[in-house]
Amino acid sequence: MKPSWKLSSLILLVVLVCGLICVVAGCKAKEQAPPTPVVGPPEQVEKPVAEQPEGEPIKVGAIFSVTGPASSLGTPEKQTVEMFAEQINSEGGILGRPLEVMVKDDASENDAAAVAAKDLLSAGVCAIIGPSRTPCTMAIKDAVQEAKCPLVSCAAGTPITEPVEESYWTFRTPQTDRIAVAKIVDYLKKENITKVASIYIANPFGEAGNKQLEEQLPAAGVEIVAKEKFTQDDTDMTPHLTRIKAKNPEAVICWAVQAPPATVAKNIKDLGMTCKVIMSHGVANKKFIELAGPAAEGVMFPAGKLIVRDEIPDTDPQKQLLIKYAEDFQAKYSAEPDTFGGHAYDALLLVRQAIEAAGEPDRAKIRDELEKTSGVVGIGGVFTYSATDHDGLTKDAFVWVQIKDGKWTLAE
Question: Which pTM value belongs to this model?
């Protein structure tokens, strides 16, 4: 018996409705389908391979105290720059061209620094980073000014960038002695210390630091009851410290780098002095602890955050970079990085950024772009330069560090 036309129509309608439902459901499923999962953990996913840099290398000069009395500063600086340059080239170079860092050793001597600068300028470098020390930087400052070549120093003395109208081509990455003393003033006020003694090395770094102490401490109500200076060749500061001890200071502030501060710390201990011992940021190096030995215990100083990176808050904008730099350095050299290597990292970081912003390795354009640097996170702090400030950092770049059990510890 044949179905009636009404029944046939009903069957056809049901088929059409079911088909439509299936189509809609299929589309909806497609819309809601999750993305294809990545196979394996994120770290196993291959990253795009950077194009190899090509063409004429971009030459950047570097002068460090790789040998001589300041070698514990210059060696990590040289290592850092070589490591960072390798990383830059592995990521495509600068403007697609390979970076060539021409490193010179000034052997911790001013005349050698001057010769190195002359050689680099003749080689056509577009910028120079370093030297490691304030005296060596001052020995080349006029030469780079005359050659109109940007210099980003890794030394901290105030005369490097001041007066700024005489430092048109010169910048620096370390925290300055001015802001170091400002940080010390904060500490002295907090501890209600009103009588201190100053002992410093007779070179541009020590004299600049002492000048800041003389300017800032009295203004903060702190009296400098004694003042002594020594030379790099002095191996015993007992006579200086005996005179200081007679004045009964509540704290002794030492402004120098390398071996002399360690000698000061040991002589203070030998003399039985119980006052607080405060050093400049120039001792933020393991060599000081090695040389001072037990006398380093309790010594305090303002320093960049690198040496206490694990203790600073996770919210600190520098922390991620500090940890990466430390891990990279440790992996490559099987050694702990320090503040001084960080100064060199920042110098090359800022020069690279300036070249990229300039669009070419032109000395004048690089200088102009350096001066426009704003909010760049580095190892030493967050950098912002301007036409009136070639230092780039504030006292917020510092933390208070104390040496306990032969290690750096965050003291604030």
Answer: 0.82
